[in-house]
Amino acid sequence: MKIVLTGFMTAGKTTVAKILADKKNFNFYDSDDLIEAREKMSIEEIFTVKGEDYFREVEKDIIGELLNSDEDLVLSPGGGAVLNDELRQLMLNQAEVFCLDVSAEEVLSRNKNDEIVRPLLEVDNPLGKINSLLTEREKYYQEIPIHFDSERYSAAEIADQILAEIP
Ligand code: S3P
Fold this sequence. Notes:
This protein is α/β, with parallel strands linked by helices. The chain has helices at 13-24, 31-39, 43-50, 52-67, 85-94, 104-112, 126-141, 155-165; strands at 2-7, 27-30, 73-76, 96-101, 146-149. It is globular and about 45 Å long. Monomer.
């Protein structure tokens, strides 16, 4: 079985995914970690040196490989992985997919207090950028059938609700 936690940047995908992997005894993967290891560069460097389109290609390849494997796993993809139609369909076909929701204001505050550098939010008006990305991506996140409010529930509560949904 494969479980995929989608959602916007800072929604808590990795935290929930790690709890689930632990409880199910599945391997945990974070696509950004795998991309950094393969490219031997940080996500920030990849965006600066090679550009976002290149990052999206590597992201698609790495997530595709995981989804086509035989392994039981829990995956935390980057928040933009849903943008690619083929990849989004592959996730929905191959995995139990869930989406964590978060408001723009909360993304701004979580991102400020996070050590992870997210190149898309390194701009003069991050709240404006977050709002425009959320609007642009909403239709893709809405294709995911089950959503959880990451501001209302803790990561542990969301993990328990997901465990109740899967066989
Ligand atoms: C991105 C999300 C990031 C990372 C990259 C781009 C996005 O991952 O993949 O900075 O486009 O939403 P997180 O969602 O884990 O922050």
